[in-house]
Amino acid sequence: MDRGYAHRTSFAIFAALTTITSFPPPLSGAGSDPVEYTVTHKTYDVKCHIGRTHVDSPTAVNFTYPGGGGKGVPCIRATMGVQVKVEYMNLDNEDLTTFINVPPNAHVTGSCKSPQWMELSWKGVKGSSRSLKIHANPKISSSKEDDIHEYFVNQVSLRMEIDEEVFPRMLQPIGNLTALVENEKYFEVPLNKSFKCQEVKSKLKTKDPMGPITVVFKDVQFQTYISGSTFAEEIICKPTHGTDYVAIGIGCFLGATIVSALSSYAFCQWWRKRDRRS
User: What element of type H or E holds 176?
Assistant: First the structure.
């Protein structure tokens, strides 16, 4: 075979494989680093399989309400990175996933009256409106210890304008997406403590023809009904990982192997003693 032909063939195969395992360049949010990505599930699976990341993790930054500028001491304080994951189907009946990272310069609004809430709003590609709202539990009327014993976030809601660039070729196009989860207990801690966790996932429900929709909070420290100027003592969340059946299976296999080896050893020792007696 001609060496030049073999070389060109090898290069073509390499280029094809590189194309299969590459992601399209991320889309840029307005006034921030790239924060919006759309990938097919097939590409996503390939990327995960070869152990390479497909989307930048959201940057953990400080969000407070009220903010600085003489607006008073914050009643809600959060340090976290936030990523929105929206799954949908395109015209070719392919499953696609759009990842949207909340930018560090998101605008913060809220309320210090019970129930306290914080809303992060920002502009996406081509000025598309995006907002994420976090509600604290409504039963709190003050921060006195004789009134309450714990607080938590009981509602997370999402509103987004849907555009063709970030959600290309949707099977069922819509203008706006609204999603909500309520009656939950996220970031739950005792009174006058702050919640801290490496990751918290919130699955939102929607009546729109999209989904599942997941909001991921990364490197979170969160506190509402603040009585001081900084975070209170932190309470680390409990691990929420599911049962690792692979590890259990490996452990059972190793245990069975050890038991079998010990049984064989004991039998051999018994057999040798029996031979010596006879």
Answer: strand 176-190
